User: What shape does this take?
Amino acid sequence: MKYNFWQRLKVRLFGRCYLEHRTRPGWSGYLPFFLAKCSKHGYFEDYPHGYQERLDCPTCLSETKI
Assistant: This one.
């Protein structure tokens, strides 16, 4: 997916950029999705996890599970 200049700038300045609220099959509601950048894999989209509301790179997660 392509991200515009302003979205990439917000990620550089604030560490994340709000994209939209989304839902997935099996979810009871909507969650905010953000754009973030992994130093190893580049840009990714994720929703906040845990009390710290961290964004996890899915590629990094799949590499650690192997």
